[in-house]
Specification:
It contains 22 helices and 18 strands. By secondary structure, it is α+β, with helices and mostly antiparallel strands. The chain is globular.
Length: about 725
């Protein structure tokens, strides 16, 4: 076959089939005699159809994941070649590129193994498959995609078929009968086992997933039953102790799970211990929900009980629930150490999507390194009061036995926090608070010992940073409570002082729990799991309370009544309504949590002028007023500031309209029409100075491509 050196000589192929594969294309040798690749040129709109066709290979059914990706913006290159990319994505078979077998040689499903007690990290997956291809959206012709197939064979480095019905050495669930158990089915099965779901229910869901690929027969069911049983036994017998020495055990775990580690620094005389954990699924969720959105942090969890404190990075998913996307285990919060793992995390995300960017970062600790966040993520920083509120309320309830005194103390602390923008001296107010409640010895001693030395730092943080909403604070608190339940229910003696135990808990039970929650919600399966997931935050539970169940006291606004939805004879009292420091007598609130009754009452109070605004709104208003008070000369800088302000105001109005609309169609119909003119052709390396005249002879293929692009087609996501 002749080698073509110019991409302009490669014909564009557009198969008639709705889904097509590499077998339906004619491949061309492109490059030079020393180095050339098999390439094909197709419309960019048909890339998904090609990937779906490749996944449906009869001999080797699989999925392809994005191993790497890069993007360029149009106009970023002044000079470029014909084959320069606008978008670049490397797709790899999901059975590779890693080989999770012992030493990367003999695979866990092979007939012979040296050590039968140790298993691979992901059975029936990651077999070292070398099949991969590149899709380049051409910079000069964005409507076309150049497919570069580096290796079309589904083989490992030794040249042997490593998965599918042609893999004659595979045992376990019977690869000849069950050609593919995708990672989604594996993760679903493992998650259900980790969460303690009965084996009969696990097997039922496992068989349903397998039948999507290979149909139903008695042999498949029998082999699936064996697979689920063996996997359950492996999980039950697994242990976190890979070595008696905790430090050595962690080193072994890191060596075996490199793909789940984004940063690791072993402890030494000069450097502290830092372990950053992020699974592939967590990376996907961070890219999906963190881009142009808010990230949050639950910092210093277990600072008293664990060997090393745990810091969790969170994103807010489609239901605004806090979703953990990374765990950092370390005792060091110094700026150089924080910057290290933050840069590593950002580089990992931008290795997949180079344009990934965070719009805001929400912190909950006044001692957090704000400079590191701003330097690395280049975004605004917000502050959440959930940790302050929870700590004060829990200790008031714990150290004071009188309910009336409890709610009065909490109300006074709330007034002090609310008055930070009114010119009130917070230190004087706190001193008066300690004198007025001097008889509450236990709480006052706690407050003076732990809060008074650093209270100025916390108050300054509340004044200078925008404050987060109740919904965000409630979501973070819900994650914190769930994490506490998962970690502190272990009966293993001395387990809390081992890092390998903490890593095992996070990557098995907690990870599986959140994976199954998201899967149940997106696939509309596991209805019980989905309902519990939706109602896992106080904000969503508050939305289920009708407005008619809330009764406000009209005279002094001292309290509000909320009728129970489970027991019509039960009424909960919410004291100090309209404030984040409201006090409720329900069981959940008496544990120090932000309950649904307080959130619902505050939702009702925001529509009444007699009640004060939320702290997040007051903080936002104070920031705008400070900007307005600053004198500016009548210059271009003022014009630019006004333009930015109007742009921000327009975006806020659209966001409010979108969130408050019941019908998305009404929002779309109100959008203004946007007329665009057709762009002319551009020459290689230089944009055309004048628009070219449209050609009637070439308009038909363009119209056909436009019709195909607008036609509803099957998406790649159906395989996920």
């Amino acid at each position: 076959m002749d080698i073509i050196e110019s991409i302009l000589d490669i014909p564009v192929q557009d198969p008639k089939e709705e889904e097509f594969s590499s077998a339906d294309l004619n491949w061309t040798k492109f490059g030079n005699p020393e180095h050339h690749d098999d390439v094909a040129l197709i419309p960019y709109a048909r890339v998904d159809a090609f990937i779906i066709g490749e996944c449906s290979n009869v001999e080797c059914p699989t999925r392809f994941h994005i191993e790497r990706g890069r993007k360029r913006s149009k106009g970023s290159l002044k000079e470029y070649k014909n084959d320069e990319y606008l978008e670049y994505r490397l797709y790899w078979c999901s059975f590779g590129p890693e080989n999770y077998g012992e030493g990367g040689g003999i695979l866990p499903s092979r007939r012979y193994r040296l050590n039968t007690r140790n298993r691979a990290a992901r059975p029936q997956s990651m077999r070292g498959c070398t099949c991969h291809f590149v899709v380049k959206r051409l910079y000069a012709r964005p409507s076309l995609a150049l497919i570069i197939y580096n290796d079309r064979r589904h083989v490992n480095k030794s040249g042997f078929v490593c998965h599918g019905p042609l893999d004659r050495d595979a045992i376990g669930p019977g690869a000849k009968k069950i050609p593919y158990i995708c990672s989604e089915i594996q993760q679903q099965t493992m998650s259900m086992i980790y969460l303690g779901i009965p084996e009969e229910n696990v097997l039922e869901k496992h068989i349903e997933g397998i039948q999507r690929y290979c149909g139903s027969n008695a042999k498949v069911n029998s082999l699936a039953s064996q697979y689920v049983h063996k996997l359950g036994m492996i999980i039950k017998r697994s242990t976190h102790e890979l070595d008696l020495d905790d430090q050595a055990s962690i080193r072994m775990w890191v060596e075996r799970n490199k793909k789940s580690i984004f940063f690791y620094q072993d402890s030494s005389e000069a450097d502290p211990f830092i372990l950053g954990i992020q699974t592939e699924w967590q990376l996907q969720q961070m890219i999906r929900f963190g881009h142009r959105s808010i990230m949050a942090v639950d910092s210093t969890f277990g600072i008293k009980r664990l060997k090393y404190p745990l810091c969790t990075l969170l994103v807010f998913d489609s239901r605004q629930h806090a979703l953990p996307v990374a765990w950092i285990i370390t005792r060091s919060f110094a700026k150089p150490d924080v910057s290290k793992w933050m840069k590593a995390l950002l580089d990992r995300a931008r290795g997949i999507d180079i344009g990934w960017k965070v719009s805001g970062f929400l912190i909950d600790d006044a001692a957090a390194e704000i400079d590191s966040i701003r330097d690395v993520f280049c975004c605004p920083v917000l502050f959440s009061l959930w940790r302050v509120r929870r700590s004060w309320l829990r200790n008031i309830i714990k150290k004071s036995s009188n309910v009336e005194v409890q709610r009065e103390m909490f109300k006074r602390l709330g007034k002090i926090v609310y008055s930070i923008w009114n010119g009130v001296d917070s230190l004087v107010a706190l001193e008066e608070f300690t004198q007025d409640f001097v008889d509450q010895t236990s709480f006052i001693e706690y407050f003076k010992a732990l809060w008074m030395p650093k209270i100025e730092m916390w108050i300054d943080m509340m004044k200078t940073l925008p404050l987060a909403s109740q919904e965000a604070s409630g979501a973070i608190e819900a994650y914190h409570v769930k994490l506490k339940v998962k970690l502190y229910d272990d009966s293993h003696l001395g387990a809390l002082q081992r890092v390998d135990w903490l890593v095992h808990k996070l990557t098995t039970e907690l990870h599986s729990s959140y994976w199954l929650d998201r899967y149940a919600d997106e696939s509309d399966s596991f209805q019980n799991v989905k309902e519990e997931y939706i109602a896992s935050t106080s904000w969503h539970r508050a939305l289920r309370i009708p407005d008619t169940s809330v009764i406000l006291e009209d005279k002094n606004q001292l309290f509000a009544k909320v009728l129970s939805q489970k027991d019509s004879n039960l009424t909960h009292l919410v004291w100090n309504p309209g404030s984040e420091f409201a006090f409720c007598d329900c069981e959940w609130a008496m544990q120090g949590n932000l309950c649904k009754h307080i959130i619902k009452v505050n939702m009702i109070c925001k529509n009444h002028q007699a009640y004060q605004s939320s702290m997040s709104f007051q903080s936002f208003r104070e920031i705008l007023m400070n900007l307005w008070r600053k004198p500016m000369d009548d210059s271009v800088a003022l014009d630019q500031a006004v333009a930015w302000t109007h742009q921000m105001l327009d975006q806020i109005q659209k966001l409010v309209e979108l969130n408050s609309a019941n019908d998305i169609g009404s929002v779309v119909n109100n959008l203004p029409l946007k007329w665009v003119s057709k762009k002319g052709r551009t020459f290689v390396g230089r944009p055309s100075a004048a628009p070219s005249l449209p050609s009637s002879s070439k308009s038909k293929p363009l119209d056909a491509a436009a019709r195909k692009k607008n036609r509803k087609r099957k998406r790649l996501s159906r395989l996920r």
